[in-house]
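Is this the right way to post structure tokens for a design question? Let me know if I should format differently. Anyway, here goes:
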């Protein structure tokens, strides 16, 4: 900006400054003019200007500022100096200490070649994991702390971590920390964090990680905000930075339990003493406070068994070994960085390279270059991290980058954007990033960290849905090809081994495929509750399942998350999803990315909800603000199908966020209702009245739907029970097996018709008269009724021997000629081989369910070999047959039936190649591949493997 006549050039007026300092100040002023065109008219930046408060340069804008300074001066500013800089003068001082721009490690990679070692699978606690590795390979590199991709701050081997941690434990015990006491850890990413965490465990105490302040100048205000967590945890001690010790009096005055605020260095000066015995697997290993819980603390209690179960389950899906390398910028106070990255690497003996989050925020390319340099195979980031890489890294900063070794980079901890996935994959494919490496995952602290992962190497699956049906009816119907306004959601994978996910309606009943509802889960990784918060703990559990607080649906075995339960807005019978609206509004030029919150306010007069859009902007010109509001109004109306009630434009840093960057919609709602933002909204009584009237009919429809479901369930059971009794007495009276099956077939068909169950069948003409084995997938008890109605002749069923001991069912099955076998003993099956083959030779087709049983979890389990061994020895062909829809109708462990269409598909026969064991295995795998291709459910073979029988 040129000075006007009569004005003095403000840069030239900076007396006493050299040319580099004037140029840096000019860069700052230019950025401020771009960010705040109105503010720059009245306020001129100076060396004393505060970067955030005076100039309005937030963390993302700071990244842009540093990029411009480094380009202009061809230097690399010290990361810690950038993070600590409060004023422009601090940046000038950092420039004076800066070294020349370094050559990227684009041609040389550095990562030690470590021998293969097994994971600590026999360990029952985290201490045992560390001791196991320290005893067997003490000098193996465990972790490296990076300042950035170039600078290393320190390393630890397993032996060093164990020794340094014991020294911390000596100091804690000397300060009267007893087993079971809670000790807070408020440290940045550093060697001290790792030794402090395990030092607490060695002392028998419980670590409570809390996030440290971004800058030391914020330490006092930051600690005041953490008092709620420290009080709820009843923290006995806190391990922090040396600067925190001067505030010990402040904290102890507010916390009765807190006895000391100390540092790792102070603790390690104590004399060695006897450590308490290693705690049990069920003992508490960690209290993880969920993001944003400073106001209403929710400390998730996790045992050693919980953490190890989660780590091992995630490792099984990822195929983790000691040859893998994990590069992470994730904060260690967050479960994704603490458990997923660090403790997972420890268990599998995979080297971890950890850098502070601020290094990534300042230079996002440092994460990518660290993965290049250390030949990473795994990493992870919330969605905003991928966005930062897309938008804030210039192409010239990526020359020579190579990411082809990556096998999985998890995208989790916040809603996953299909748009982000597409753009990140497209841009970084030019640098070797594999298409299937980015993995949308789902997890939560209440399940340690991970709950659902996609198969390794699978490209992201994106579901295009009919927006109207999802919002009005809660049904995830695929959108038509010409639909210009679909909802796009990303598949977050299938439950981890040993874990289960279900979706339930408002009454707690499980819903079927592609039906939206509340997501619940259970498994060995789940918490026992929240620490000293009985009310929240009671709300968490229901009939052995845990409430995730999320809404979603299941399709093809994958879980799709549609939003948080408390954030879903119901407007005139439609479900509106805040994150989708927020992402769209944030893309409007002039609106800050990541600075939009959408929430609802109950309108007591109408009984409906008002939709509020709170958007941050630096724009101050009234005309342009009006234009932004109009554009946002039109965009929200187009996406949601209903206009927002109010769009509030607020200054930057108004929208509250959690420590991990998530929008805190409930806090935004509180700010709005308290009148601290926005302007008063004029009455819209006519519009509200119309919305209320429009919402009456959907509420009536939902009540009718629930009544209809209950009525159908009662009728269904009446039909099934009557049919069973009729079939039972008919089979007892009829002398001929052929007559019994004919009667059962007629009863089954009549019953399915009376229950209004639509059945389609293809390939029935492929079924010959005898001498063939039919192999079906097994999803429900309904499978038997469906096949009884469809299969011709007198099929010879093979059932588990437990059914023979049931009084009524066992007698009925015996009258129908069913052969009972042991599922897990090969000898038991061989004893019945002759009876089965004889039945097939006499004109009966053998029916096998080679999975042995069924589960409520969607998926095709591993197959037992019995059916295929018989087929090979008897030279009988196998017909692969697929049943779909029965699991939705009547799921395992559930007795509330739901209407569902059912289909049966019979494929071409597969003939055995030989009688030797490899031929039997190939026959099994061929048939299973056909079923897996057509059943529409995921492959569970690697998760649950039966015996060879």
């Amino acid at each position: 900006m040129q000075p006007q006549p009569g004005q003095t050039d403000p840069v030239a007026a900076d007396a006493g400054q050299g040319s580099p300092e004037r140029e840096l100040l000019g860069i700052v002023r230019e950025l401020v003019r771009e960010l705040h065109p109105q503010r720059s008219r009245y306020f001129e930046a100076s060396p004393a200007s505060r970067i955030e408060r005076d100039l309005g340069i937030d963390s993302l804008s700071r990244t842009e500022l540093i990029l411009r300074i480094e380009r202009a001066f061809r230097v690399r500013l010290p990361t810690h100096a950038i993070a600590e800089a409060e004023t422009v003068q601090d940046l000038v001082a950092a420039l004076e200490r800066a070294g020349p721009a370094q050559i990227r490690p684009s041609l040389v990679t550095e990562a030690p070649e470590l021998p293969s070692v097994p994971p600590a699978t026999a360990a029952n606690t985290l201490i045992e994991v560390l001791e196991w590795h320290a005893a067997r390979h003490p000098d193996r590199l465990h972790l490296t702390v990076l300042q950035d991709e170039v600078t290393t701050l320190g390393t630890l081997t397993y032996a060093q971590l164990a020794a340094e941690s014991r020294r911390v434990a000596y100091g804690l015990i000397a300060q009267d920390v007893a087993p079971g006491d809670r000790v807070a850890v408020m440290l940045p990413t550093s060697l001290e964090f790792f030794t402090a965490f395990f030092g607490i465990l060695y002392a028998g105490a419980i670590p409570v990680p809390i996030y440290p302040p971004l800058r030391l100048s914020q330490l006092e205000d930051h600690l005041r905000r953490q008092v709620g967590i420290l009080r709820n945890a009843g923290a006995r001690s806190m391990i922090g930075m040396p600067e925190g010790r001067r505030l010990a009096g402040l904290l102890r005055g507010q916390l009765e339990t807190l006895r000391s605020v100390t540092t790792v260095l102070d603790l390690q000066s104590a004399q060695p003493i006897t450590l308490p015995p290693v705690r049990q697997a069920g003992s508490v290993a960690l209290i993880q406070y969920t993001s944003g819980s400073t106001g209403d603390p929710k400390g998730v209690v996790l045992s050693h068994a919980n953490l190890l179960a989660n780590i091992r389950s995630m490792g099984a899906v990822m195929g983790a070994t000691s040859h893998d390398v994990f590069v992470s910028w994730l904060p260690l106070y967050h479960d994704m960085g603490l458990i997923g990255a660090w403790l997972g690497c420890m268990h599998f003996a995979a080297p971890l390279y950890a850098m502070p989050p601020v290094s990534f925020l300042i230079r996002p390319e440092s994460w990518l270059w660290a993965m290049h340099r250390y030949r990473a195979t795994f990493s992870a980031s919330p969605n905003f991290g991928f966005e930062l890489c897309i938008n804030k890294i210039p192409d010239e900063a990526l020359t020579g980058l190579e990411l082809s070794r990556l096998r999985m980079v998890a995208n989790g901890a916040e809603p996953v954007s299909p748009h982000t996935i597409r753009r990140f994959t497209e841009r970084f494919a030019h640098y070797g990033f594999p298409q299937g490496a980015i993995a949308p995952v789902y997890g939560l602290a209440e399940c340690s960290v991970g709950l659902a992962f996609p198969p390794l190497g699978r490209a992201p699956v994106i579901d295009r849905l009919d927006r109207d049906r999802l919002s009005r009816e809660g049904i995830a119907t695929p959108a038509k090809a010409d639909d210009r306004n679909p909802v796009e959601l990303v598949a977050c994978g299938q439950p981890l081994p040993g874990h289960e996910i279900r979706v339930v309606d408002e009454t707690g009943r499980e819903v079927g495929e592609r039906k939206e509802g509340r997501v619940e889960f259970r498994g060995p990784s789940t918490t026992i509750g929240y620490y000293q918060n009985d009310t929240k703990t009671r709300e968490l559990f229901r009939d052995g399942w845990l409430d995730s607080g999320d809404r979603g649906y299941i399709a093809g075995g994958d879980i799709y998350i549609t939003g948080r339960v408390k954030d879903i807005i119901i407007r005139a019978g439609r479900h509106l999803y805040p994150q989708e609206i927020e992402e769209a509004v944030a893309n409007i030029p002039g609106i800050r990315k990541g600075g939009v919150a959408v929430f609802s306010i109950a309108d007591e007069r109408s009984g409906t909800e008002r939709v509020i859009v709170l958007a941050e902007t630096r724009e101050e010109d009234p005309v342009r603000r009006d234009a932004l509001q109009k554009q946002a109004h039109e965009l929200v109306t187009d996406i949601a199908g209903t206009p927002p009630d109010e769009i509030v434009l607020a200054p930057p840093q108004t929208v509250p966020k959690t420590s991990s960057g998530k929008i805190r919609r409930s806090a935004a709602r509180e700010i709005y209702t308290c009148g601290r933002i926005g302007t008063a909204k004029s009455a819209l009584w006519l519009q509200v009245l119309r919305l209320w009237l429009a919402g009456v009919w959907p509420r009536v429809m939902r009540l009718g739907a629930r009544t209809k479901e209950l009525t159908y369930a009662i009728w269904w059971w009446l039909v099934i029970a009557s049919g069973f009794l009729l079939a039972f007495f008919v089979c007892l009276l009829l002398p001929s097996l052929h007559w019994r099956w004919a009667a059962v077939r007629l009863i089954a068909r009549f019953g399915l018709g009376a229950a209004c169950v639509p059945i389609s069948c293809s390939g029935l003409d492929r079924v010959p008269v005898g001498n063939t084995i039919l192999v079906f997938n097994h999803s429900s008890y309904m499978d038997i009724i469906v096949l009884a109605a469809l299969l011709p002749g007198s099929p010879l069923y093979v059932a588990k021997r437990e059914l023979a001991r049931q009084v009524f069912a066992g007698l009925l099955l015996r009258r129908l000629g069913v052969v009972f076998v042991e599922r897990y003993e090969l000898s038991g099956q061989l004893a019945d081989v002759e009876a089965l083959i004889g039945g097939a030779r006499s004109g009966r087709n053998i029916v096998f369910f080679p999975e042995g049983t069924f589960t409520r979890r969607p998926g095709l389990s591993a197959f037992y070999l019995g059916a295929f061994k018989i087929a090979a020895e008897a030279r009988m062909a196998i017909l692969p047959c697929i049943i779909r829809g029965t699991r939705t109708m009547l799921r395992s462990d559930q007795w509330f039936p739901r209407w569902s269409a059912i289909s049966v598909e019979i494929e071409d026969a597969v003939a055995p190649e030989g009688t030797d064991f490899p031929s039997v295995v190939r026959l099994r795998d061929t048939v299973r591949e056909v079923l897996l291709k057509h059943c529409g459910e995921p492959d569970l073979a690697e998760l649950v493997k039966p015996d060879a029988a």
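Format looks fine. Someone answered above. Worth noting: Residues 211 and 596 are 24 Å apart (CA to CA). The mean pLDDT is 83.
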